[in-house]
Input
Amino acid sequence: MKALIERKTPGTQAFNRSPRTEAGCSCGATINAEAVTEAEIKNTEQVLRIATVSTALAFGALAASTEALRSNAAGFCFQASFRTAVAAVIGGAGAVLYWKLAGRGLADARKGAWLLVLAGLGFFLYPLRFVSPEKLAETLQGLAFAVVALSTVGFMLWRVKRFLDEDTEHAKAIEAATAPAGPSRSA
Output
């Protein structure tokens, strides 16, 4: 599988595109940066490989443990079976799919992120099947309270991020407006 790595060499305005073997990069990402060195490309590929493998292992373990969870008279236990292995493979494949989507661009990365969020919610809510009908109302009340509390914290963090991004843009605009003009070059 080939990835297209875009490089902009210092002092030029055009991109130099050269095909490059991914060297095991499982996400298929396209790297686009100014003055990208071979070491930076290799580091990026290694980080993406680590992120892909670790996410796949985590989602595989999550899917397997969720499938293996059983209820018995003594409480809960894990019963591994062939279905557990299949769930692990499917969970890992879902995480690899996410990183492949993330490598395509921001819009696909957002779609993949929503898929991960929905899968996470499914894994979180799946054990509710073991809650007795008498306790289900109380459990759902507690979950609703937790959702409201976490959503409030998430909203506040999102607003702080937006504020800081706007402040950064404002500071850059002020800096650009007050910066002295450099010497002009004639072509």
